[in-house]
Design a protein that fits this description.
Elements (H helix, E strand, L loop, with lengths): L5 E4 L5 H12 L3 E5 L5 H8 L5 E4 L6 H15 L4 E4 L14 H28 L7 E6 L12 H20 L5 E8 L5 H14 L3 H12 L8 H12 L10 E4 L7
Parallel strand pairs: 1-2, 1-4, 2-3, 4-5, 5-6, 6-7
Helix pairs in contact: 1-2, 1-8, 3-4, 4-5, 6-7
Length: about 260
């Protein structure tokens, strides 16, 4: 379905981002990966799906790095048709104890990077299809873009901002072929969430399985994690013809979290 399209997925060397990148690749999209850590293994995984793969190691807290990444992607593939803003970090602390430098980093990576990548991707998307436009901007927000949790002030603020930016982007491009939507996952078993599980296990003196059950029971009625594969399939839907008039939604995939 996406053969001939090119996608850039930020924060895609593991977890949700890699799951979305692989889902888009299965539909034929060439992929630009971004992130830290091991690059060779995820690149090989995506390439094995029969598409072209490139990698750029932009630090998503730095606008100049994001500009360089977008130029690199355009040079490599001509233009980016699908932009998935997924990069994110987390820190947990009460507001009065929240380190200022962690607040700044979370806002920069989780929110400002979405603005910078979007503003740089839009001109080519709007010019596509003989000026009628074609593009998909998919922002990975969070259930915390819809509701709050204690001790996550920066993350909740950033993700609420992502949902707002999603709506504005969708409205500004509503008469074109460019859509913008947000995905709002609940608990997904990523390295970021595993750190919270480890902290809970340590604090309560329980094993990993017990900590997982306690974590899920606090918020998610389904008592199961959403998977990167499920999120990838939702991203594919947004890119499909069925998603042509889905604009500005914050689509929660949260096991009933926000239904309560």
């Amino acid at each position: 379905m996406l053969k001939g399209k090119n996608a850039l997925v930020t924060g895609s060397t593991s977890g949700i981002g890699l799951g979305i990148a692989k889902a888009l690749a299965r539909q034929g999209a060439n992929i630009v990966l971004n992130g830290f850590g091991d690059v060779d293994a995820p690149s090989a995984e995506v390439a094995s799906l029969g598409v072209q793969v490139a990698y750029h190691g932009a630090d998503m807290s730095k606008p100049s790095d994001i500009e360089d990444m977008m130029k690199f992607a355009a040079q490599r593939f001509g233009r980016i048709d699908i932009l998935v803003n997924n990069a994110g970090i987390q820190h947990v602390a009460r507001i009065e104890n929240f380190p200022v430098e962690r607040w700044d980093a979370i806002i920069a990576i989780n929110l400002s990077s979405v603005f910078h990548a979007t503003r740089l991707a839009l001109p080519a998307m709007r010019a596509a299809n003989d000026g009628k436009g074609w593009g998909r901007i998919i922002n990975v927000a969070s259930v915390h873009g819809l509701v709050a949790s204690a001790e996550k002030s920066a993350y909740v603020t950033a993700k609420h901002g992502v949902v707002g930016l999603t709506k504005v982007t969708a409205l500004e491009n509503a008469t074109s072929g460019v859509t913008c939507n947000a995905i709002c996952p609940g608990w997904v078993l990523t390295p970021l969430v595993q750190k919270q599980i480890d902290a809970k296990a340590l604090a309560l003196g329980v094993d990993n399985d017990a900590a997982i059950k306690l974590l899920l029971a606090e918020k998610e009625p389904s008592l199961q994690f959403t998977t990167p594969e499920e999120l990838g399939d939702l991203a594919v839907f947004f890119c499909s013809p069925a998603g042509n008039n889905v604009r500005g939604v914050a689509w929660n995939m949260d096991g009933g979290w926000t239904a309560q």
